[in-house]
Design a protein that fits this description.
The protein has helices at about 15-30, 40-45, 50-60, 75-85, 100-115, 125-140, 140-155, 165-175, 195-200, 210-225, 240-255, 285-295, 315-330, 345-355, 375-380, 390-410, 425-430, and strands at about 5-10, 30-35, 65-70, 85-90, 115-120, 160-165, 175-180, 185, 190-195, 230-235, 255-260, 265, 280, 305-310, 335, 360-365, 385-390. It folds into 3 domains: about 5-130, 3-Layer(aba) Sandwich (Rossmann fold), CATH 3.40.50.620; about 145-390, Phosphoenolpyruvate-binding domains (TIM Barrel, Alpha-Beta Barrel), CATH 3.20.20; about 395-430, no CATH class. With about 425 residues, the protein is of the alpha/beta class. The chain starts with a strand and ends with a helix. Strand 7 and strand 8 (about 185) form a beta hairpin. Helix content is about 45%, strand content about 20%. The longest helix has 20 residues, at about 390-410. Helix 12 (about 285-295) packs parallel to helix 13. The chain is globular, with a radius of gyration of 25 Å. The chain has an 8-stranded parallel β-barrel with strand order 6-9-10-11-14-15-16-17, surrounded by 9 helices. The structure holds sulfopyruvate (SPV) and magnesium ion (MG).
Length: about 425
């Protein structure tokens, strides 16, 4: 009887290298390909340009492939338990890269039932690398990038975003991946272009002083070196007559969501609360701004999120909920509820009451103060976007301040070497074309 052979595939571009490995596998027996789901692929590499269903159709037509099965995780456990293939085929790169724990687990399971692992030398052909880079670039194009946030929410239920205020912080948001002990991986889904961090990076207060032209320059710097979706903090959105232009520009350049807060007059940062004078907008005026923004849209992909400041300004839960329903009725695709309390009780109460009436509007939170709550808990309560709004600014800035002090104190730079990234690493941080 022919042996059964298993290969896992996460790619959405099929090139000669994949065909060659399938040919080699087919020479060993009857080949089953495990096609990784979109969510599994997105957890450790770029978001697939072809959906799971399309990849299944293509891969099942390749000569030498007998059948295709769904692979839910990058771990092989479920697959091996269900199908018990005689042979698993893989490139030998996973002996040393981040997939090492997956390999160890795979080997243990294979040994438990007498299966075999066959590893072929991994070939990194420069033409295939170029092809991969080409497809990666496609993901940065406006239509593809803009649509991705909605797709991610539909796919994962909860997405996580981190602030980016420059090309470099964009690269950190784009490329940071952590590999978990079980071989799983995690990365950020989207980027938050925060008014606080964008202003702070320019040495300016967060009072809508940095104008939209400058804010769009920041987005452009970030977009030039990344592919992930952008959620833009547009403060109050400004005058309605101006907001429609902001919406059009954001949509055209490929941002996925704008968040506007229901304040009027001179905006101050929410984390000051009532310690400074801040005025909440009248409900009808803000609804008018949302309606005008929605009217300006050309696609179904771009979302307008209304941010409610009632808890920040101590106007009470009833006011927050009243606003949330009015803003969704006016067409808001998403609601962000903000609080500056460490205790998440008021955030949880809002979410529970809002979700009792509305199960579908996207819910957004920014857990800067209530930062003990985990993403899992937010997900369980019905939140769809968690934004880590300022942590890169708040970590980068103190490190720079310390280095500056050390140089002054020691009359040389040697002492601050320990807190500096090696020169070769900082050079490698920026990918070369
Ligand atoms: C920002 O990051 O600019 C925000 C969130 O608006 S907060 O600073 O918490 O108001
Ligand atoms: Mg802001």
């Amino acid at each position: 009887m022919r042996k059964t052979v298993f290969i896992s595939m996460s790619t959405d571009i099929i090139h000669g290298g994949h065909i060659a490995i399938i040919e080699k596998a087919a020479a060993l027996g009857e080949v089953t390909v495990g096609v990784l789901t979109d969510e599994a692929v997105a957890s450790f590499k770029r978001y697939p340009l072809l959906s799971y269903e399309e990849r299944v159709k293509i891969i099942s037509q390749i000569k030498g492939v007998s059948r295709v099965v769904r692979q839910n995780t990058i771990s092989y456990k479920e697959i091996l338990d269900n199908y018990r293939p005689d042979v698993v085929v893989h490139g030998d790169n996973w002996r040393t890269d981040h997939l090492k724990p997956i390999r160890t687990e795979c080997l243990e399971i294979l040994e438990s039932y007498g299966g075999e692992l066959v590893e072929f030398p991994y070939s990194s052909n420069s033409e295939y690398k170029k092809l991969d880079a080409y497809f990666r670039d496609q993901a940065s194009l406006p239509d593809i990038r803009r649509a991705r946030l909605k797709k991610e929410i539909a796919m994962k239920g909860l997405v996580i975003a981190i602030e980016a205020h420059s090309g470099l912080t964009g690269l950190i948001a784009e490329n940071t991946v952590v590999y978990e002990e079980n071989g799983g991986a995690r990365q950020f889904d989207a980027m938050w272009v925060s008014s606080l961090c964008d202003s702070t990076a320019k040495g300016k207060p967060d009072i809508e002083l940095v104008d939209m032209t400058s804010r769009f320059r920041t987005i452009d710097d970030i977009m030039e070196v990344t592919t992930k979706p952008v959620i833009f903090d547009a403060d109050t959105g400004g005058m309605t007559e101006h907001f429609v232009y902001t919406v059009r520009t954001l949509e055209r350049i490929g941002a996925s969501m704008v968040i506007i807060e229901d304040k009027t007059g001179l905006k101050k940062n929410s984390l000051f609360g009532n310690e400074v004078k801040q005025t909440q907008a009248a409900i009808e005026d803000f609804c008018e701004k949302i309606r005008a923004g929605k009217h300006a849209l050309k696609t179904n992909d771009f979302m307008i999120c209304a941010r409610i400041e009632s808890l920040i300004l101590e106007q009470g839960m009833e006011d927050a909920l009243k606003r949330a329903y009015a803003f969704t009725d006016a067409g808001a695709d998403a609601i962000m509820i903000h609080s500056r309390k460490k205790d998440p009780a008021e955030i949880f109460e809002f979410i529970e009451k809002f979700r009792a009436e509305d199960s579908s509007t996207v819910l957004v939170v920014v857990p800067t103060s209530f930062n003990e709550v985990t993403e899992e808990e937010f997900r369980a309560r019905g939140v769809n976007i968690v934004i880590y709004a300022n942590q890169l600014t708040r970590t980068g800035f103190p490190a720079m301040q310390s280095a500056a002090r050390m140089i002054l104190e020691n009359h040389r730079a040697k002492e601050c070497d320990d807190i500096c990234m090696p020169i070769k690493d900082i050079i490698r941080l920026i990918p070369e074309e």
